[in-house]
Amino acid sequence: MRVMKRNPWLTGLGTVLSLVGMWWGSAQGGVASTNQTASLVAFPKVIADGTRDTLIQLVNASSTDNYQVHCAYTNASGRCGTLAGTQVCTTNEDCPTGQTCVDIRWQENDWDLTLTHQQPTIWRASTGRNPNTGQDTVPGQCTQSMNTVRQDCPGAFGLLNSNASPAGGDVRGELRCWEVEASLQPIGFNALEGVAILETIGTGQISEYNGIGFRAINVDNTDPVLHLDNAEYDVCPASLQLTVYPVGADDTIARGFAGASCPTAGSCPVDTEITIIPCSTDYTPASDPSSSIVQFSGTNEFEQQLQSQAVPMTCYLSASLNSPSIGLAYPFSTAANGSLFKLKVRPASGGHCNGAPAVTCATLGATCPNGNGTCVPNAGILAVAEEFHTSANSSIVGTAAFNVDAIGARGVCAVSGNACTAASSAACNGGSADVCLIDSITTVINP
Amino acid sequence: MYNTKRVGWAVVAALPLIIGQSHAVRALTRSDRPAAVVIYPQVEACDVTKSSICPGNLNRDTLIVLSNTKANSVSVNNSVTAHCFYLNANSHCTNSGNICTSSSQCQNGTFGSCVPGWTETDFNVTLTPDQPLSWSALNGLRKFPITGLTCSTDQSIKCLTPGASCGLNGTCGFGGNSGSLVPPAPEIPFVGELKCIEVDPATQTPFGGDARNDLKGEATLEQILDNGTLDVAKYDAVGVIANDNNDGNSTLTLSMGDEYEDCAPVIVFDHLFDGAVDPIDSSNTAQSDLTLVPCSEDLQTGNTGSGASTAQFLVFNEFEQRFSTSRRVDCHFNSALSLIDTTQPTRSIFNAKVTGTVAGQTRIRSVGGGLTGVARLSFVTGTSTVTTVGSAAYNLHQDVGERDTPDTIQLP
Questions:
Q1: Does B343 share its domain with B312?
Q2: Is B56 in the same domain as B198?
Q3: A304 contact B CB<8A
Q4: Which of A396, B70, B357, B372 is 20 to 30 A off residue A416, Cα-Cα?
Q5: What is the pLDDT of residue B168?
Q6: What is the pLDDT of residues B231-255, one digit of tens each?
Q7: Do B380 and B286 fall into the same domain?
């Protein structure tokens, strides 16, 4: 019998190659971006509620490889007034006076599709799309399928499980898609990118924004948790920044033209809606939705610094800047002077009580009073914004969505500020409150 | 004795850890974070009361927003000066000098050709810490919010010493927006680009040494439709990131690891094909336009050839079928999608009548100088008379990687 001897040289070579690979990956982390291909793409604002709908375009940018993609909607909508209410809402401000938004379930709806190399694809959120090879479809057009709510569109659309690519009823929520193997274990080849097109039905008015991409760095495909910690995937930004019209301000361009669109001050106001989702989410059944306490602050062109109260959010927050949910009517209004604000949005310092997510707390890890559990970190946040421009002589409101800017990076310890990852909590050596501020997405490998 | 089988297994064992890692060579322009150079690839303006050739006979303008992302400091002057350049890409008749879009507009008794132009108009804007400023391309900006030395919480209170306390009124600033002036767009109609570069106000060149990435920009393209609707399309300015080794001279080198990061080797443009029916409202069809501008620019001599390149387009539909074409980009390229490769849109490889699907992916590789740009999707109705009902602008994606040759921006 031939005896196999270990060869130290070969063993060493394999070790060196492994270490090189791990270093190469770990040394190249970054912050989520809207400009490049990624392994995980998030669309914070998806609407399919009868008045607006959303087209999702997802692309495999790889020139050689086909990929399976797992997608999951989270529907954050409820009903106004009662469980049987017909009006969709996410906050009380969406409802008529006297009604509150009830039955918000944060319902998750997932499916898989395959994208061949270089393949683009598109679907409508409210209807989804049938799997097909493009036969019996109309060139350049999606048509209503005869027996289902879904559309038939030309193109090879590889829907792998027939469960649901429709968003699942009236939806105001988010969508995330990530690369997986056939077993649904995550993989990281950074080939995905996407855009979302929001349309106001019956008007042709559209808004478009880029999906927010997290590049894979060193994916552990034995673990269903996607760590957004600059070791496995890119981190979330530390804060977000956008420039907005203050509440009550007129459209600057329309005011500049003599005409009926904006004849007098106050006749062509611009409303800005911000949509915020937590970076972290947990798709396991019956899990609690992620929460955060969000802080808004701003500077106008007169350098006046303004700060609002902290705003609690769970799972999804989409509201106008002047809505009570955000509370920016003042001082972020024209009454306080100025025609432009640079708005910063970030998770508030400290944390929230995990037994009562709307309750703030200062010391991470400490016990919250009144039986409200433990003080846990506020989740990182992602966002998009959308402007609504009203004209004095048209009932149609012009819309424009835009991505917000990422400032700084999470993946640091709360007290010491040291860089940290999911696997390296030893870096947070500043006491029990020195928690690693990272985010994660818990997926389900065996649904 | 050398054992190839064992070497092979060793390599195979290590391969999964190497392949599939993000190569994450991040030399890219960025539209989602502050930068040292911000590029607004598409700026347009027209007033129908001042011009008879406004596209679609619609009033349109661009709201430019430029922000300083440096925070306020009591002791350090965190104001930022941006040296900005409007690049006018209008074509003009050789005989009359009038703005034109085709040579047929130049036949007024004498023979004339419609020749593309590229002229620059530059100006300075100084932004105080954290300050956002906005102006319209049509009107520019003459009156700035902070002039001279004023107290931070009450601009009506003047002060004498930068950084000194103003008591209850904050601290004394460092000079406000003094020295700033934004001219209106040089022509009506105007189509072109705006480029703003963070500079040392004393030398009008970038600061030497450490990277300064403090500028952030957005643009809102707005047109007033026939029915009075304010149709708005917003995009983020494309940012060129500075590195820590700037030599502070007037030649900006864009190359990974050099003074500034370079433009991406491949732009990835996700779009609907022209003529595709809107899956939400079948009365609308899609019409997109693409704007590309060179990353290299000679702003000293106005040499349009300095950044010229050939854009190679690889187009993929949802059947994985591939088409290709190319176009030269000299200074400012703006085209309807289905006019990139032909004058007959229904025969274009960017048209749904040819490709057959609704969605497409176009990969744009530049041969020569680097490119960047933005796109705009419009929904239109009608066939013989086409009417825009809505539009949306968006930034392009990029493939990570490094260009073979650096780009340069030469300042005056």
A1: yes
A2: yes
A3: yes
A4: B70
A5: 82
A6: 999 999 999 999 998 999 999 999 9
A7: yes
Considering the domain architecture, whether residues B161 and B222 belong to the same structural domain is answered as: no
As a whole number of angstroms, the distance between CA A383 and CA A210 comes to: 11
CB-based contact A206 B391, cutoff 8 Å: yes
pLDDT of residue A24: 37
Write the CB contacts of B326 (distance below 8 Å, at least 6 apart in sequence): B310, B311, B312, B313
Selecting from B22, B28, B392 the residue whose C-beta is nearest the C-beta of A208 gives B392
ipTM of model: 0.89
Domain tally for chain B?
Answer: 2
Residue B360 located in a structural domain: yes
Positions of chain A with pLDDT lower than 70, given as ranges: 1-29, 133-135, 159-165, 167-169, 327-338, 445-447
A187 touches chain B (CB under 8 A): yes
* CA–CA gap between residue B410 and residue B191 (Å, rounded): 22
Which distant-in-sequence residues (6+ apart) come within 8 Å of B60 by Cβ? B44, B45, B46, B54, B221, B222, B223, B224
* A192 chain-B contacts, CB cut-off 8 A: none
**Under 8 Å between Cβ of B242 and B213:** yes
Which of chain B's residues have a Cβ under 8 Å away from the Cβ of A302?
Answer: 145-146, 155
Same domain, B151 and B210: no
Q: pLDDT tens for residues B294-333?
A: 999 998 887 766 778 999 999 999 998 999 999 999 889 9
Are B302 and B353 contained in the same domain?
yes
Does residue A25 belong to the interface with chain B, where contact is any CB pair within 8 Å? Answer: yes
Q: Which of B130, B236, B356 lies closest to A154 in CB terms? A: B356
Give the percent of chain B with pLDDT over 90: 61
Nearest CA in chain A to B363: A61
Q: Could you tell me if B73 and B124 lie in one domain?
A: yes
List the domain range (segments joined by +) for residue B207.
Answer: 27-102+114-144+180-410
Q: In Å, how far from its chain's centre is CA A327?
A: 22
pLDDT for res B15 = 42
Q: Is the pLDDT of residue B23 over 80?
A: no
Contact B235 A402 (CB under 8 A): yes
- The dihedrals phi and psi of A179, each to the nearest 5 degrees, come to -75, 135
